[in-house]
Design brief:
about 325 residues; 3 domains; mainly beta; Nuclear Transport Factor 2, Chain: A; 3 helices; ten-stranded antiparallel sheet
Amino acid sequence: MNDKGELRQLVYQYNIANSLHIRKVSTGFTASTQERKLDTRIAHASARINLSLFLAGQSAGLSDNMTMTLANIFGWDIDFALDIRQGDHFTVIYEEIFMGDKKIRDGNILAAEFVNRGRTYRAIRYTDSRGRSQYYSPKGLSMRKAFLRTPVDFSRISSRFNLRRKHPVLNRIRAHKGVDYAARPGTPVKATGDGKIIFKGRKGGYGKTIVIKHGSAYSTLYAHMRSYNKKSRYGSRVKQGQIIGYIGSTGLATGPHLHYEFRVNGHHRNPLTVRLPTASPLPKKYLADFNSKAQTLVAQLNLIKNNTLALLQ
């Protein structure tokens, strides 16, 4: 503003790196944008789990969002609600985005290792020539499976698959053909695989239920939900990880939880132990480039892990 209260210049910062500048000139106003350069730096972190994954991540300097991303990468192989044990450890190589000397945000995880119950899992981020990014094992196998192992993040298992379970409401032996995940009411429920909703509504003791068909052989059931996602419609297609509803206690339920069933050719299978079909591997035309990059990242993971574990011992 000038002394007369007339607008001379207006600056609108529409994100952390870009701003719009509007200036008064003799013929009216001009507008231009300015972009501040962001730098990508590579960082790494390692930690051993004592109490929880998130506390271990915080001790290693990772944000909770970065720790959640790490869990999502390995979520097809590790049930983070059930399988994590004291002494498990991880190493991660990731990007940090800076403006000058100030860190603005986290970038992508480039490579990671997670040792769970003595078994080592590794993941490498690879971007193909079409700009599509995905995580693969060092052998080029997709970390993504056709199904997520669990439909609820970081919940507690309150009842397992048991064909001789005594029902807590009916007080008699009744086969429990799924797994119950206890969590707060309203906790999001995710579709564990791509598919089509073939049932949505109340289903006897199941309460509010959704059944998803995945191709010709597989189907999953989600029961006792409080409510549905607005996009969850009968006949609609869903993507793996898409929120389809929210945990509740409708039907024959003693408390808020999700009852989850996994069926193969109509037969119930234990969701915790059933062998999940794999997703497609990396196309052969990318393997040479991937192998070159993966070898470098795996060597860095080994070096970081060995140095960190030596300090922890």
